[in-house]
């Protein structure tokens, strides 16, 4: 039987906030991590995408920060979009607690971040590069950090952030509590954890490469020249939110332009867009201003949008792990989802 959030000894105010945000019963990863983190343990957690990992660490952090008026928490994640989403979830769950947040990512005005840091925020969400920028400027409150979370650690290492991560780890106070998690783990992550975490509690809710069971997967055989036609045929039968993954910036634009000519409500997002454009596109997608989003793997991790009914792999990713993360944008929180891969002869190797 799933636990309700009353079972964890959380404050009534936090439980009420959770209920207002739709959190009624704890997911498996939340059941296994909230109590150990509240008890002071370091944690390494591995759980499949869409399992509620963000709330698994934000809930105990909010509870502890509400009782410890001088301590601060830091969450480090690989992308601007994920850092921003984490910050938004924190703001929603911590309302009425008066815990100031700060978002530190590239693509945002440095002066605005400096002003925010002067206001003594107690919850900081950011990316490794920008956090290191503030550390080098001596504007980051290193000595106040008591809780640190490394979200999607494997992805950060894949993106080449090892030196930045190590610099942050070496500058943080030795007396702190750490939470390292990802949907997938590898030897580099385990090695990093063994160096910097203290007798961590290891929690594995599922195998790293496990696909959520509620996601129905299909393959549509096609040829390169007819992929767009096959895509159009699929989308004509779908009215809900759809996320289409492409391999390159050029592909996102090509697919988007083709579908627009077919009178479909579609936009694209990739790393070549300015941060303001990316933010607005995601905001409009969440609000339902359009229902089809073409994206690179930028959107494969951390994108948490309700009711994405279908994920389409227009082009395959390079690694199996990225496939897992892509299709994990649907079928979230025990909802059914569907993933279709358009497979041409060139894709089969």
List the keywords:
39% helix; 6-stranded parallel sheet; Rossmann fold; alpha/beta; 349 residues; 19% strand; 2 domains; single chain
Give a structural overview.
The protein is of the alpha/beta class. It folds into two domains: 5-204, 3-Layer(aba) Sandwich (Rossmann fold), CATH 3.40.50; 215-343, 3-Layer(aba) Sandwich (Rossmann fold). It contains 13 helices and 13 strands. Helix 13 (320-327) links the parallel strand 12 and strand 13 (337-343). Helix 2 (28-38) packs parallel to helix 3, helix 3 (53-67) packs across helix 4 and helix 6 (128-137) packs across helix 8 (162-171).
Please describe the topology of this protein.
Layout: H1 12-20, H2 28-38, E1 43-46, H3 53-67, E2 72-76, H4 80-93, E3 101-104, H5 110-118, E4 123-126, H6 128-137, E5 145-151, H7 153-158, H8 162-171, E6 177-182, H9 187-196, E7 201-204, E8 215-221, H10 227-235, E9 241-245, H11 249-261, E10 266-269, H12 275-287, E11 292-295, E12 308-313, H13 320-327, E13 337-343
């Amino acid at each position: 039987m799933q636990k309700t959030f009353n079972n964890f000894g959380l404050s009534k105010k936090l439980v009420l906030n959770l209920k207002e945000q739709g959190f009624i019963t704890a997911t498996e990863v939340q059941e296994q991590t909230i109590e150990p983190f509240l008890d002071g343990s370091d944690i390494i957690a591995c759980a499949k995408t869409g399992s509620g990992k963000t709330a698994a660490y934000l809930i105990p952090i909010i509870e502890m920060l509400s009782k410890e008026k001088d301590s601060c928490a830091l969450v480090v994640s690989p992308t601007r979009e994920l850092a921003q989403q984490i910050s938004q979830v924190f703001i929603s769950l911590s309302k009425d607690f008066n815990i100031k947040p700060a978002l530190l990512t590239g693509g945002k005005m440095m002066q605005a971040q400096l002003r925010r840091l002067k206001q003594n925020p107690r919850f900081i969400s950011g990316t490794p590069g920008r956090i290191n920028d503030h550390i080098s400027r001596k504007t980051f409150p290193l000595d106040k950090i008591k809780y640190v979370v490394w979200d999607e650690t494997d992805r950060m290492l894949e993106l080449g952030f090892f030196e930045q991560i190590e610099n942050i780890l070496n500058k943080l106070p030795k007396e702190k509590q750490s939470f390292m998690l990802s949907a997938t783990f590898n030897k580099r992550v385990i090695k990093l954890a063994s160096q910097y975490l203290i007798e961590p509690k290891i929690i594995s809710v599922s195998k790293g490469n496990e696909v959520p069971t509620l996601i129905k997967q299909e393959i549509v055989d096609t040829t390169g020249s007819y992929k767009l036609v096959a895509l159009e045929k699929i989308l004509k039968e779908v009215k809900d939110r759809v996320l289409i993954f492409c391999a390159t910036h050029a592909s996102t634009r090509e697919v988007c332009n083709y579908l627009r000519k077919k009178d479909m409500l579609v936009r694209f997002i990739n790393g070549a867009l300015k941060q303001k454009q990316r933010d607005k596109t995601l905001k409009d997608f969440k609000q339902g201003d359009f229902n089809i989003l073409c994206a690179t793997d930028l959107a494969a991790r951390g994108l948490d949008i309700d009711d994405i009914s279908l994920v389409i792999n227009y082009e395959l990713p390079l690694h199996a792990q990225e496939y897992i993360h892509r299709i994990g944008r649907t079928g979230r929180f025990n909802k059914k989802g569907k993933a279709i891969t358009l497979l041409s002869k060139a894709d089969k190797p």
